[in-house]
Amino acid sequence: MRDSDGEMTVVWLLPAKRYTVDTNGTAINLYGEARKVGVALSVGTVGTSTVTVTIQESTDNSTWTTLHAFDAKASTGAVYVDLTPTKKYVRAIAVLAATNTYYVDFGVCAGFYYQRYYPSHVA
């Protein structure tokens, strides 16, 4: 899939499935080239839990700072945000809170928009 002046790669930051514990997603290396990230959080079945998802970024894949924090979700639905990363790596983390039934079915998907580069001799 392409936008008008670049290319887009879509990946799961947290794969869609049932989660029963807090989860740190795998870091995605942007190689310093992603200029925009579109992130979708989709929540399906919710026990008596809530899930709070945070998108983080890092320069070294070790020390993380918050790029965006979604509001806690306690019901089925989807939320989308456009973000502008400033560091080399991004990941999603999820924190579950429950009063009784401790699970949430959800997934976090991201589309990374990369600038298309052309050699100077290509029009």
Compact overview of the structure:
The chain is an all-beta fold and 123 residues long. The protein has no helices and ten strands.
Description:
- The two termini are 22 Å apart.
- This protein is mostly beta strands and 123 residues long.
- A five-stranded antiparallel β-sheet has the order 1-2-10-5-8, with no helix packed on it. Strands 3, 4, 6, 7 and 9 form a five-stranded antiparallel β-sheet that branches.
- Helices cover 0% and strands 63% of the residues.
Shape, please? elongated
In CATH, what is the class? Mainly Beta
Helix content: under 10%
Query: What order do the helices and strands follow?
Result: EEEEEEEEEE
Structural class comes to mainly beta
Q: Tell me the fraction of residues in β-strands, as a range.
A: over 45%
The total count of helices amounts to 0
Going across the biggest sheet, name each strand in turn.
1-2-10-5-8
* Estimated radius of gyration: 16 Å
Please name the CATH topology: Jelly Rolls
Biggest sheet architecture? 5 strands, antiparallel
Q: Provide the low-confidence segments as ranges.
A: 117-123
> Would you identify the CATH architecture?
Sandwich
CATH homologous superfamily annotation: icosahedral virus
pLDDT averaged residue by residue: 82
Q: What descriptive keywords fit this protein?
A:
elongated, Jelly Rolls, 0% helix, five-stranded antiparallel β-sheet, 123 residues, disordered C terminus, 63% strand, mainly beta
